[in-house]
Amino acid sequence: MSEITPETVEHLAELARIALTDEEVATLTRQLGAIADSVAKVSEVATPEVPATSHPIPMANVTRPDVPGPTLTTEEALSGAPESDGSRFVVAAILGEEQ
Amino acid sequence: MARADLMDFDEACQRFDIALGFEVHVELSTRTKMFSDAPNPASSEFHGAEPNTLVTPVCLGLPGSLPVVNEQAIEHAISLGLALGCSIAPSSRFARKNYFYPDLAKNYQISQYDEPIAFDGSIEIELEDGRTVAIGIERAHMEEDAGKLTHVGGATGRIQGAEYSLVDYNRAGVPLVEIVTRVILGTGADAPAVGRAYVSTIRDIALALGVSEGRMERGNLRCDANVSLSPKGSGVLGTRTETKNVNSMRSVERAIRYEIQRQAAILDAGGAIVQETRHWHEDTGTTSPGRPKSDADDYRYFPEPDLLPVQPSAVLVERLRAALPEPPAARRRRLRETWGFTDLEFRDVVNAGLLVEVERTVAAGAAPAQARKWWTGEISRIANASDREPAELIDPAAVAELVGLVESGALTDRLAREALDGVVAGEGSPAEVVERRGLAVVSDDGALVAAIDEALAAQPDVLEKIRDGKVQAAGAVIGAVMKAMQGKADAARVRELVLERAGSA
Fold first, then answer.
1. pLDDT tens-digit profile of A78-89?
2. Mean of the pLDDT values across residues B396-404?
3. pLDDT, averaged across chain B
4. Is the minimum CB–CB distance between B91 and chain A shorter than 8 Å?
5. Residue B2 located in a structural domain
6. Is B153 helix (H, G, I), strand (E, B) or coil?
7. Of B89, B116, B241, B364, which one is least surrounded by beta carbons within 10 A?
8. Virtual CA dihedral for B296, B302, B308, B311, nearest 10 degrees?
């Protein structure tokens, strides 16, 4: 069985800054648990000889040269912002400390 | 904690064992950002741009945008790793570090977690008295910088009490290498000096490699200092704090000293240290608590699905290794010995950031003592007065040329300073300035003798005095001759000629 508990879901919700009702916590606990259980089935077939895979396509070193390209104008950059001071994004007061 | 409540530093060092650890972020000076071809404000080419003008959809985390790795940033990170004595991972990958804060628009930072590009290194740092300390490097990994927040409305401009914040994403995505040390034990009362020397060494290495501009006042190099204390001889590690925002060499030293005194006072009173992030305040010289240190789990790291692994070839790694400059400590030792400077003279040069300038001036043919004198003297004076960097004013080859002109007797020191003014003003090379301004010393003895005769005629008793052994009387004549020649005479030669006249008359 999965280790997803209501407390886990509440903790994740806090980290993701999402407010959940008790009903939503219950639903998500069940749904996330089902997902975690499904993913865990992989360990039933993976033997120690199978290396962990983060990228399914055997490719590496896709890079670009260090050459500047076009940038957005300030107007374009701010066009999707709910609020700006003309050159910078305005965001709500932040409680807590900088990362 | 008030100053008076801190434990005396020496007492703290006697009663407690000190453990240190550092995380230094180095902004790479590539032309573009880590994962986007937006211009990089950590290079002088683009520094100081208006807010939100160095941004692309990738920097803003816009839907559909995808990161692509900067090839040059990878090479710089490998070079830095090699210079730190690290092994380079044959395969490393990026990871998402998830957190919610508006300094990154996409709500995660692309970093490296379980597979950093460089690991297991060691560097030697040198304290002011010449003792060396080995610092173990756990890892150096690649990541992206975050945007810059300005808090508005609060009384202090700090976060508490702010009404809103302004975000500039120019810095978002600037390539960073984060260098993490192993725990450093046994420094005792040298702990603050070790911190300073470590950060200074990292800066020297980055500058020598040319991978970062290393300007701490611009945030090109930023240090987080971990400090913990445990009872003397207990052999255990105490609870640590991580002090952030320590952005000058001097602050590193002061912040470590403060944390040692603060923690010692708490432990002495039977209290416990809270594991937390603390913020350094330059103005008060104190730290204040920030958020409690999150567990790594809270960042929910997972492999970055939008980027492929980085697998540098052995050929590339060996090419970069072969191109590494001499390690800074070895270079300093070599130069100090070759130049024959005293410790104080050498420190003056290093502390003024003029080591490279002096080195290049010597390479261009100047005597080391002269190169030092010009750079730390007249050139630094002009730079200070005009609020510019000495290196911007004149190039080392021109300084060597000036020194040569003085040595050959073509210029006096005074004339050479005038020639320097001309070079700084953009009038050309020293020789050109001398030509245009007519600065050359009069080396024609005939002209000098004529001037001397004239001066002697005005002061007839001088020759008599000299013959009576009052050689200093020659000074009056030398002064008159120098004045007549508008300073363009070699005073030593004039003196010789005056004494000759006195002897032969």
1. 999 999 999 999
2. 93
3. 90
4. yes
5. no
6. coil
7. B364
8. 40
Contact (CB, 8 A) for B78 and B199: no
Question: Does B3 fall in a domain?
Answer: no
Query: Does B289 share its domain with B402?
Result: no
**Same domain for B405 and B287:** no
The C-alpha atoms of residue B98 and residue B101 are separated, in whole angstroms, by 10
Q: How many CB atoms lie within 10 A of CB B148?
A: 17
CA B80 – CA B202 distance, rounded (Å): 9
C-alpha separations of B406 from B91, B189, B274, B341, B397 in Å: 58, 48, 64, 21, 14
Spatial separation of the C-alpha atoms in residues B76 and B94, rounded to whole Å: 16
Q: What residues have CB less than 8 Å from B228, skipping those under 6 apart?
A: B18, B19, B237, B238, B239, B240, B241, B263, B273
Q: Does B443 contact A at CB distance below 8 Å?
A: no
Provide the domain count of chain B.
3
CA of A97 to nearest chain B CA: how many angstroms apart? Answer: 6
Q: What percent of chain A has pLDDT over 90?
A: 61
Same domain, B136 and B255: yes
Of B285, B316, B347, which residue is a domain's last?
B316
Q: Do B38 and A64 touch (CB under 8 A)?
A: no
CA distance A91 to chain B (A): 5
Residue partners of B501: CB distance under 8 A and separation at least 6: B452, B456, B463
Under CATH, to which class is A6-45 assigned? mainly alpha
In a domain, B338, yes or no: yes
Give the three-class secondary structure for B32: strand
Which of A46-60, B175-189, B358-372 bottoms out in mean pLDDT, i.e. has the lowest? Answer: A46-60
For chain A, the structural domain boundaries read 6-45
Supply the pLDDT for residue B401. 93
| DSSP 8-state assignment for residue B341 | -
Instruction: Give the pLDDT of residue B469.
Output: 79
Residue ranges of alpha helices (H) inside B297-374 are 314-322, 328-339, 343-351, 355-363, 368-374
Percent over 70 (pLDDT), chain B: 96
Segment B71-99 shows an average pLDDT of 97
CA distance A10 to chain B (A): 13
B73 to chain A: which residues are within 8 Å by CB?
66
In a domain, B294, yes or no: yes
CA distance A4 to B351: 57
Whole-angstrom distance between the N-terminal and C-terminal Cα of chain A?
Answer: 35
Q: Note the pTM of the prediction, 2 decimals.
A: 0.78
The pLDDT of residue B503 is above 80? no
